[in-house]
Task: structure prediction
Amino acid sequence: MIYPIVIYGSETLRNKSVDITPDYPDFKKLIDDMFLTLEEAEGVGLAAPQIGKNIRLFIVDCTPWAEEDPSLADYRKVFVNAEIYERSEETSLFEEGCLSLPGLHENVRRSVTIRMRYLDENFVAHDEEFTGKPARVIQHEYDHIEGKVFTDHLAPLRRNLIKSKLQKLARGSYRCTYKTKR
Ligand code: NI
Result:
């Protein structure tokens, strides 16, 4: 099934998510449905809070960048109970958007490289370094399971400038091509 995507203003996006255990009901189906939902919305990442579940689960699909970086040709990954424990001092700016904030695009500064412990969809443990586009998307999705959204990273002045847009989202005044809920 395709889930409706939770829009900015909902409490679900502000809660810190909790770890999940291997006995989580219908876990494989949930992951398949999240990939379906992501594909339908044409995004590059989706976190469980965005479909109304405050659990530490997110998926990433970097294949839209495969043309400029062939190593991303099959880059679809599942991250369970992730913990970022190192972020590089070196940062970069990149224009981000978010399925939960339709119509908003802002430059966000993030670390170029991170180190993260996580479980995959089979609950196998990994400790891995990520850099470039994957590190960018992972940090964005990781924010979601921590109750943050990308506009939280903007400088106060910039955030103030887009305040009315955020209020409109929270009031339900937005347009997008995929199913949403508040
Ligand atoms: Ni997002």
Notes: The mean pLDDT is 97. The pocket of nickel (II) ion is lined by residues 98-100, 140, 144 (CB under 6 Å). Helices lie at 27-41, 132-145, 156-161, 163-171. The radius of gyration is 16 Å.
